Amino acid sequence: MRWLHPTNFIIELKNEIYMPGIHLSKLEQQLQKAWNAEKFGDSPLLKSIEINANGGAGLRGIKSLRVDFDYPVTFFTGQNGAGKSTLLALAALAYHGVPGHMASLEKNLTAHEDGDFTYFTFRNFFHRGPGDAAVKDVALTWRYDENTPEVSLIKKTDKWMRYERRPKRAVEFLGISRAVPAIELSYLRSNFNADIAGISPAPLTVETRRVVEKILGRQYPKVEEINHKKFKIRRTSESGYTSFNMGAGEDSLIALLAQLSQLPKGSLVVIDEVETALHPAAQRKLVEALLQLSWERKLQIIGSTHSHHIIDNLPRVARKLIVREQETHRIVVSPTTMLALSEISEQQNKELLIICEDLFAASLITTALSAQVRKRVDIQACGANSELARYARSHLRIASKARCLIVWDGDVSIQEAKEYLITAKAQIPDFNSIDKRLTWRCLPSGKSPEKWALEVCRTKGLEDVVREFGLNSEGQAIDILDSCGLDDVHDIPYDLAQATGLKEDDAAQRLVRCSVALAKDQLQPLIDQIQQELK
Questions:
Q1: What are the residues facing 73 on neighbouring strands?
Q2: Cys staple from 170: which of 233, 264, 378, 526, with CB 3.0 to 4.6 Å?
Q3: Is the entire prediction scored with pTM above 0.90?
Q4: What confidence tens digit (pLDDT) does each residue in 90-110 have?
């Protein structure tokens, strides 16, 4: 991804304008409400996975890590080797099978009078190859909804666990092998010849076909799967346009949606590298389709991604960033797109990194600085105030010559900021002179930046507000400003947009311009500190 100055994020990151993750769509709100109430289908819900290793190398290097699932759809992102695949595997291992469900790639078969079923075992994901160290003294814990007992085990021998101890749920694991072109797989070529007899085409439902059309932006008069023995290919027209002649992205998308539509309701779906082989527009639309399928079929979906387009179109609560720091791992909950991509790329080309909570604060700082200073700094919105100090220390630990300034919102007290710094230092001790390269301050006024900007405009610049927002009078301006942020101060840009007929990003930027022009003196201490850091 091309790195942009924060003023350009207003255009690029359209789903994350100022209040990322707060203004959920109706569908996203329904998913959150049902999940919180534990009324999301009839299957036991996976709520957390925890790894603890008292000695040795841990599980693929992970010695201590806990991840909580706060939403029906969760996608992990992070650098290669951070632990995404390990967590996906453990998610798939959280359940035993249910009668009648045959996972697409699974070979562990159990005969049952109500229908044979398959289930995943540790050997499916954790194979000890030549030279691999044995996994031992690793404690694993899976936690579920309040009606389902947790499952724990300690790996001390070659035998992992009695799999029947796990709660029962249909599980589907979709690895990146799904995107290998059919023409490259000899077993498919040998099983699907032109003269094959006895094949059994199975048309996709009308609803699934329409989702395929929406994501790929083309019409499909016919979409079907052809089953032969235990293998499947796809065909999309009467003339025989099969998987052997499709692009890998088209074929894998159809296969993915077909599988999701056929799973038992309430299943767990695990998807590795969900964006594989798909172009950006299709990735964005796929996120919408996954959220819709999760709601309609009560599917819990857990996956991984490196894609800006996937991350940016997920609600913030659906994102988990895995950070690996030397010998430790940690989870950043609900990261902004900017933070996630910055962590993955380790890109820092400016003289000073300034990190703040959200894009409103980033825009406020950006607007207050001169063009010459803006060229020399990188301003990043990094999410929750509790994460800023940890992210800063993590970045400085990796970038040994970088400098960083934390700018907390004005409603973060000095004492709170100091406590965040102390906690972060305990988790990430000084390394490469971190303490000497890290400074901090809070925005002015003791209020959130949105509230501060609103009050500045209300008390100092009604004439400017009338002009910026195209209003009829100062009286109208007062009425609009007084109606904003009554439920939540972070909603001010959204409320202002609703009252003025503007898009939220436009309303936020106009509010920033007005407030900075009217009260730049209040921001001057911050400007002076940035200039001092650059010296």
A1: 301
A2: 264
A3: no
A4: 999 999 988 888 887 666 777
